[in-house]
Amino acid sequence: MFITLSMVKSAAESGDLHVLVVGNNPIDLSHTFERLQKAGGKRISTEIAFDLKSLFDRLVHFTPNFIVLDDNIGQPELKATVSALQTHRKTKHIPITVLKNSNYQEAMNTGVLNYLLKDSVTSESLYTAFKNSLKFKRTQEYLQQAYRKRKGQLLRILNP
Fold first, then answer.
1. pTM of the full structure
2. Which of 15, 101, 128, 155 falls between 20 and 30 A from 40, CA-CA?
3. pLDDT by residue (tens digit) across 88-102?
4. Which fold has domain 5-158?
5. Is it the case that residue 10 has pLDDT exceeding 60?
6. Per-domain residue ranges for the chain?
């Protein structure tokens, strides 16, 4: 089954959130889980994965519409996870948010739509980040479709 952005959109707009949280620190993950559960008026189902293997194990039975990555897993693992999520057929259309320990850490620029500092994360800031990521993902997908559609026209203008 393919996840499309329209599935993500309809689930998010209906108030149902399916969030996959990935990290290796159980204490940080439990704080994130508690904050997600406090997002008032929204039905939220959450799955937690501790590494790339358990992440793909969760995807067999769980279809998230948002993914939250904890940067405690380390930069190489974080980059590998983002890369794997961007290429997997079930997750390539899902917005990714990274929870960062510090603003001074290196930020990846590929595929991650949103960053949040852990010490300032609230349930409402998580929900707002999800909505903003979804809007950005929709815009990104629209622009990619428009470019593919008009690519020939653009090439004819540039190469008369």
1. 0.74
2. 101
3. 888 888 888 888 876
4. Rossmann fold (3.40.50)
5. no
6. 5-158
